[in-house]
């Protein structure tokens, strides 16, 4: 009797198991179909879509895409020395894959970062559409969480209404009149730097001293950024930014382990230290913001001629009752401070270091800039805001430096909807577009046959004013992460045409001050180590200061991966170390 009663129950359980198995099988098939579509069929459809429009590229390979070929091309380029040593044709080394495939497929081609397609766009008119005339159809690239932790989730990565609020609030801190109030502080910082170099050279028995110029320029840049961010809370800000610098080192190391799933969540020693440091930074900034909030009314009633710092602008905006529903919360203030520190420090430091390298390699331009600085500012006077617009030669040198070694070698945009560009190319929704900034800056079609040479005098000719290049071609500069939205630049201002942009203000001051201290001022010169400049020296009285950078500064690309490849490339070229000081300095002034 019991067995007869169990039979129906057993059948019910068997039916339920079969149903569950069928559902599981259906889900597995569905997932498998989605995976197959993402890893194979969708790439094939996109290849056919662009091939029908005449756009081709290296063939897609299952899962890996073009990555294997890219790594091989980068490794091959790194193994070869740059020749000649005076050339600045860094494109074949920095973006070896683009340089190689462009010769095969043209400036617009399809490339695969794994199963993710990216369309490279290097025609100025199309780039202008992406960043300016059709900007509403494109969005920023969503960076990896580790990168966002490193850079901060601030203005340069925000979208929509939140971006608009932050943009409106932060603009007040970046007007030229406000930035001009920083000029005396930057001038004094660089004057102190030059004095330290002189003292170090005098203290050395041989009359020479070796310094890492990139590290010294980081100090100057950090001082300017800290003052611009925290203003009257400068001392507290220095402590916070010192901790932020250590946190950046931890985040950079975590990115190297990004291929390990969930590595950033594992309780490793480094991760524990990173989490602890992040909490300390947040606590310090929270206390600082609270104290500044209590002083907000006094700040508003203060001198109208005082410098308006970034933190004060955000706090005061939050106090306005009319903006209460959309006031910037403390968490967002923390992220903005992180973004400002990371982006502003790296871009300005790299610009200063590259400019020093180029001046050391070209002493004739060094002397021209020095004469201009002495004529405009005098031998003893600190630079002022009135001096900067008159420094035409210095402005040309900084612009040429940015052209040859841009802070970002490439940038990425994503299509928010289907878009048809002016050349007829139809970009599907969610398609990523890679704009190789350095490739555009080195293109002989736009900059002439001497595009790989340092020649500031050719700037006007290259911009189409009586020369061989088409008009209206301008290098992409820091301070314009979105050309269609001239937002405040973490490096210090908005970009303008004509005179040097406020974004270059600190860099201009640093360069001119280092050369304006009279006949005994440090004057950089270069001596070679292998095929590329590895050391910079400058005379100080009867001795010389040899400024060595142990790791060459690299233009900061949108992906840390490219930055690591670029760094490795320069290290392989002999730029990590150089030999002992030589008696004769090539290019000595």
UniProtKB/TrEMBL annotation:
GO CC terms, sorted: membrane
Annotated signal sequence range: none
Topology of this chain in the membrane: Single-pass membrane protein
Compartment(s) of residence: Membrane
Keyword Transcription regulation recorded: no
GO MF entries: heme binding; iron ion binding; monooxygenase activity; oxidoreductase activity, acting on paired donors, with incorporation or reduction of molecular oxygen
BP terms from Gene Ontology: brassinosteroid homeostasis; brassinosteroid metabolic process
Source species, domain of life: Eukaryota
Region (Disordered), start-end ranges: 458-502
InterPro entries for this protein: Cyt_P450 (IPR001128), Cyt_P450_E_grp-I (IPR002401), Cyt_P450_sf (IPR036396), Cytochrome_P450_Monooxygen (IPR050665)
Keyword list, A-Z: Heme, Iron, Membrane, Metal-binding, Monooxygenase, Oxidoreductase, Transmembrane, Transmembrane helix
Gene3D superfamilies in the record: Cytochrome P450
Family stated for the protein in its record: Belongs to the cytochrome P450 family.
Protein known as: Cytochrome P450 734A1-like
Organism: Panicum miliaceum
């Amino acid at each position: 009797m019991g067995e007869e009663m169990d039979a129906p129950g057993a059948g019910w359980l068997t039916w339920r198991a079969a149903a569950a198995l069928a559902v599981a099988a259906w889900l597995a098939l569905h997932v498998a179909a989605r995976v197959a579509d993402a890893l194979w069929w969708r790439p094939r459809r996109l290849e056919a879509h662009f091939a029908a429009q005449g756009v081709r590229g290296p063939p897609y390979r299952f899962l890996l895409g073009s990555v294997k070929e890219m790594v091989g091309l980068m490794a091959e380029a790194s193994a070869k020395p740059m020749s000649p040593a005076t050339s600045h044709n860094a494109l074949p080394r920095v973006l070896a894959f683009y340089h190689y495939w462009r010769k095969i497929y043209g400036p617009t081609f399809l490339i695969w970062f794994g199963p993710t397609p990216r369309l490279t766009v290097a025609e100025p008119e199309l780039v202008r559409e992406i960043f300016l005339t059709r900007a509403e159809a494109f969005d920023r690239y969503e960076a990896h969480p580790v990168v966002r932790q490193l850079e901060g989730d601030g203005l340069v990565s925000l979208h929509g209404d939140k971006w608009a609020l932050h943009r409106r609030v932060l603009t007040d801190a970046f007007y030229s009149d406000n930035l001009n109030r920083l000029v005396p502080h930057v001038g004094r910082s660089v004057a102190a730097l030059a004095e330290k170099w002189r003292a170090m050279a005098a203290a050395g028995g041989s009359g020479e001293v070796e310094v890492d110029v990139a590290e010294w320029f980081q100090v100057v840049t950090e001082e300017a950024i800290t003052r611009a961010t925290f203003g009257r809370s400068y001392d507290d800000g220095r402590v916070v930014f010192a901790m932020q610098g250590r946190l950046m080192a931890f985040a950079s190391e975590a990115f190297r382990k990004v291929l390990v799933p969930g590595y950033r969540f594992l309780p490793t020693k480094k991760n524990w230290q990173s989490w602890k440091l992040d909490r300390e930074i947040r606590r310090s900034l929270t206390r600082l913001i609270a104290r500044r909030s209590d002083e907000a009314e006094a700040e508003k009633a203060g001198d109208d001629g005082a410098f308006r710092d970034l933190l004060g602008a955000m706090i005061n905006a939050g106090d306005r009752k009319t903006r209460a529903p959309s006031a910037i919360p403390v968490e967002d203030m923390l992220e903005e401070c992180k973004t400002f520190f990371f982006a502003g420090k790296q871009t300005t430091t790299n610009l200063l270091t590259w400019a020093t390298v180029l001046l050391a390699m070209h002493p004739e331009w060094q002397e021209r800039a020095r004469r201009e600085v002495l004529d405009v500012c005098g031998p003893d006077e600190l630079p002022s805001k009135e001096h900067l617009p008159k420094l035409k030669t210095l402005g040309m040198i900084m612009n040429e430096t940015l052209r040859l070694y841009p802070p970002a070698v490439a940038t990425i945009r994503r299509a928010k909807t289907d878009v048809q560009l002016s050349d007829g190319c139809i970009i599907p929704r969610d398609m990523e577009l890679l704009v190789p900034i350095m490739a555009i800056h080195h293109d002989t079609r736009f900059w002439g046959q001497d595009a790989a040479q340092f020649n500031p005098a050719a700037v006007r000719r290259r911009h189409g004013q009586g020369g061989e290049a088409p008009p209206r071609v301008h290098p992409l500069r820091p301070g314009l992460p979105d050309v269609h939205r001239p937002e405040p630049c973490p490096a210090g201002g908005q970009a303008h045409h004509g005179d040097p942009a406020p974004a270059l203000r600190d860099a201009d001051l640093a360069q001119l001050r280092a050369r304006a201290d009279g006949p005994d001022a440090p004057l950089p010169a270069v001596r070679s180590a292998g095929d590329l400049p590895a050391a910079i020296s400058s005379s100080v009285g009867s001795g010389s200061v040899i400024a060595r950078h142990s790791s060459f500064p690299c233009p900061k690309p949108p992906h840390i991966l490219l930055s690591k490849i670029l760094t490795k490339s320069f290290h392989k070229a002999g730029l990590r170390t150089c030999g002992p000081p030589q008696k004769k300095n090539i290019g000595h002034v």
